[in-house]
Amino acid sequence: MSHEAETATADGSVTVTRAGAVLEITLDRPSRRNSLTPLMIESLIDTLTDAARDDSLRAIHIRGAGNDFCSGSDWVAANRTGTGRPRTGDLVRRVPHGAHRVIELIHTIQLPVVCSVRGWAVGLGCNLALAADFTVATADATFWEPFVDRGFSPDSGSTWLVPRLVGLARARRMLLLAEKISGSEAADWGLIHHAVAPAELDDTAERLLALLAGGATVAIGLAKQALQYGQRATLAESLNQELLNLELTCRTNDFKEGLAAFRERRAPNFDGR
Q: Which UniProt keywords are given for this protein, alphabetically ordered (predicted)?
């Protein structure tokens, strides 16, 4: 992955930069509250796919430019094909390779993903934040799953993510009643990691990213994988997965450093390998 890259569209871009071992991804379309065009979604997919193969990375940070995080998928841009009415089954063919793939990559990549949310996080934008490992938001941010208010059923993983985070009763409020949830409510519900005052958002995210990027990267990635596996596994299956992961992490440099630091009564200095 290049040190700095930008994939631009006519009216938006996904900007990718490096801050040490942290990959900084900015959704850059503030005039439309960072709604995602098809090309922006493709850029996210390419960026996350490259990041999964980059051994020099230790954390990922996703944020929005301007006053909002992301107002979802731009359906007008997505359907501006110029070829008339699409064939039957168009959504079934396209969406798994676009919005759904973004959610899968954020959820499964073996790097910790942090989202910083201010303003609106809507639809796909909301689910992007919920798929991250840690989402920090301003107390006055708004998380909204507006699908039924627009006349169609929820997508981009919302029916899987929301009930697992907050339970069915609150999931029904968000997905069947399309209730808007503030950042402070989202934190109280357990929908996100933390809510802070607007002036504290950047510093809070940077501290969290520094902690994660300085951690035992392989162990963190495998712990993330095991947590997700455990959501659909029995106890016996989870114990076996933990054992396999333990075998792998015991072969890392960070495991050796962790033991040495414990013996020497000092803080470990992990290199992520």
A: Isomerase
Neighbouring residues of 3: CB distance < 8 A, sequence distance ≥ 6 = 17, 18
Residues paired with 116 in a beta bridge: 136
How many Cβ atoms from other residues are within 10 Å of residue 88's Cβ?
Answer: 8
Q: Which residue has the higher pLDDT, 96 or 7?
A: 96
- What the block records as the tokens of 142 is 């708004």
Q: What is the tally of structural domains in the chain? A: 2
153 and 18 share one domain: yes
> Is 24 a domain residue?
yes
> Helix (H, G, I), strand (E, B), or coil: what is residue 194?
strand
Q: Are 154 and 173 in contact (CB under 8 A)?
A: no
Q: pLDDT, tens digit, for every residue of 41-73?
A: 999 999 999 999 999 999 999 999 999 999 998
Q: What is the pLDDT of residues 95-124, one digit of tens each?
A: 655 688 999 999 999 999 999 999 999 999
Q: What pTM was computed for the model? A: 0.88
89 and 60 housed in the same domain: yes
CATH number (domain holding residue 236) = 1.10.12
Out of 214, 230, 245, a domain closes at 214
CB hemisphere CA count around 137 (13 angstroms): 31
How many Cβ atoms from other residues are within 10 Å of residue 126's Cβ?
A: 30
Question: In 10 A of CB 190, how many CB atoms?
Answer: 11
Claim to verify: residue 192 and residue 221 sit in the same structural domain? no
82 and 138 Cβ atoms separated by less than 8 Å: no
Residue 96 DSSP symbol: G
